[in-house]
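Ops channel
N.P.: pipeline sanity check, posting one input/output pair.
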């Protein structure tokens, strides 16, 4: 059962993620790469904080070997996803659109303000979980963990957008309405899984 203070931070972080994402949509400073890489980056931060938890608070973990084995497997999977996301969504998907490529490059180089603010909120949340000793739980099957499931579905959704959405619509970087239509499913997916996770731990 999570502490109420942690639950509040969970909801606050989701609120700010939503606000910052909507602001990016309004200003046409978002792409499919932006949102998928944001989800990957959040999961990467979460995993790194868990590594720190294992290193500095190992004595509080009941099944240390299984915990560490799960973290190593997850880091490997995240690396594979990282390469695929960068190559396919960061470059191939937007290759003919210089505006989107520029947005993707800014995100990757951590020069996109909204992306950085959202990531900072996620980091604060994970650090709070660290200090409150809320990182003891782990899922032995990394492919069934919340963050990885979100990445799975997001990547499949992104590929469907690339395959079936008219290129004239997807590549229209001058319409925030189009941006909203493209990004909305990813945002709703993230909110759905995150809120369900919070409620499950109340």
């Amino acid at each position: 059962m999570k502490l109420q203070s942690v639950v509040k931070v969970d909801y606050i972080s989701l609120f700010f993620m939503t606000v910052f994402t909507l602001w990016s949509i309004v200003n046409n400073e978002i792409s499919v790469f932006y949102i998928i890489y944001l989800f990957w980056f959040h999961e990467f931060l979460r995993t790194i904080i868990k590594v720190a938890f294992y290193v500095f608070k190992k004595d509080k973990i009941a099944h240390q070997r299984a915990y560490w084995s799960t973290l190593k497997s997850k880091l490997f999977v995240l690396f594979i996803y990282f390469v695929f996301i960068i190559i396919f969504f960061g470059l191939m998907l937007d290759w003919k659109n210089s505006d989107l490529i520029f947005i993707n490059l800014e995100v990757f180089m951590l020069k996109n303000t909204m992306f950085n603010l959202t990531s900072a909120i996620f980091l604060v949340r994970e650090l709070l979980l660290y200090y409150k000793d809320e990182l003891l739980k782990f899922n032995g099957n990394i492919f069934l963990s919340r963050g990885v499931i979100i990445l799975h579905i997001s990547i499949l959704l992104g590929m469907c957008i690339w395959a079936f959405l008219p290129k004239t619509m997807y590549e229209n970087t001058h319409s925030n309405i189009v941006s909203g239509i493209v990004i909305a499913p990813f945002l709703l997916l993230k909110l759905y899984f995150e809120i369900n996770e919070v409620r499950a731990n109340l």
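N.P.: looks fine end to end. The chain has one domain: 4-200.
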